[in-house]
Amino acid sequence: MPFESTAQLAPALLDVTFRDGYVGSVIAVSLYVSLTAVALSTLVSVPAAVAIGLADFPGKGFVKSVVNTGMGFPSVVVGLVVLFAVSNQGPLGSLELIFTREAMIMSQFVLATPPITAITLAAVSGVDDGVRDAARVLGGTRVDVALVVIKEARYGIATAVLAGFGRAVSEVGSVLIVGGNITSADGISKTRTLTTAIQLEARQGQYETAMVLGAVLVALVLTVNAIVVRFGDRGVAG
């Protein structure tokens, strides 16, 4: 297709896809699932990483290795495990979560937790021991020491959370397995995300729509990178 034709088609394509609500609903589902999963993962991962980083116990190196290994979990395997858990024969079958957004959140939670934990642990471990000693000398409790360390490692923790979000929002395999890539009769997304929609539209030859969705996904990734850079600049300035 000539460049001029593509340039003329783009505004009309954007108008149709957003007016019908298809792209908007896909974006909404993607953000809802990914942000919820990352928020829940952060509530678990950051305290766990801080506790591991500040404690001294036998096998600490092994625990770190396990956490780092988790960053490489194959997403399809995670999807299969979550699918089994929420299926009728699984332990969570009575909750009827199969092919729902909640099941997708579960799978993304599993995928986002290792990178958030590992990067936060590295940031906490990188805080100078003198900072901890100073907090203890001033009469700080364990909680006070932990808060001081978190403050010093805040840039690394922010990077960890954003890395978890990047892993979640770009996921295809697990959300496709547990979510089913479902839309309603009027084309509004129920469990279809940006990544699964791109895959489907490309397979069906709807390359223009796939390009729109891809552009939106890239914009989200660039926004995340901009946030990381902004936090980094503040960290250096501080």
Could you explain how this protein is built, in words?
The protein is mainly α and 238 residues long. The protein is built from 11 helices and no strands. It has helices at 3-19, 22-54, 60-70, 75-86, 101-125, 129-137, 142-152, 154-169, 173-179, 194-203, 207-237. Helix 3 crosses helix 5 (101-125), helix 6 (129-137) runs antiparallel to helix 7 (142-152) and helix 10 (194-203) runs antiparallel to helix 11. It starts with a helix and ends with a helix. The model is unreliable at 1-9 (pLDDT under 50).
User: Count of helices?
Assistant: 11
Provide mean pLDDT, rounded. Answer: 84
- The termini sit apart by 51 Å
Radius of gyration: 21 Å
The largest sheet is: none
**What structural category characterises the helix and strand content?**
mainly alpha
Question: Could you give the count of β-strands?
Answer: 0
What is the helical fraction, as a range of percent?
over 70%
Using the alpha-carbon principal axes, give the shape. Answer: elongated
Show unreliable segments. 1-9
Say what oligomer this is.
single chain
SSE sequence, one letter per element: HHHHHHHHHHH
Strand content: under 5%
Tags for this model:
11 helices; mainly alpha; single chain; about 0% strand; about 240 residues; disordered N terminus
Q: What's the short version?
A:
The chain is mainly α. The protein has 11 helices and no strands.
Ordered list of secondary-structure elements with their pairings:
Layout (H helix, E strand, L loop, with lengths): L2 H17 L2 H33 L5 H11 L4 H12 L14 H25 L3 H9 L4 H11 L1 H16 L3 H7 L14 H10 L3 H31 L1
Helix pairs in contact: 2-5, 2-8, 3-5, 4-5, 4-9, 5-8, 5-9, 6-7, 8-11, 10-11
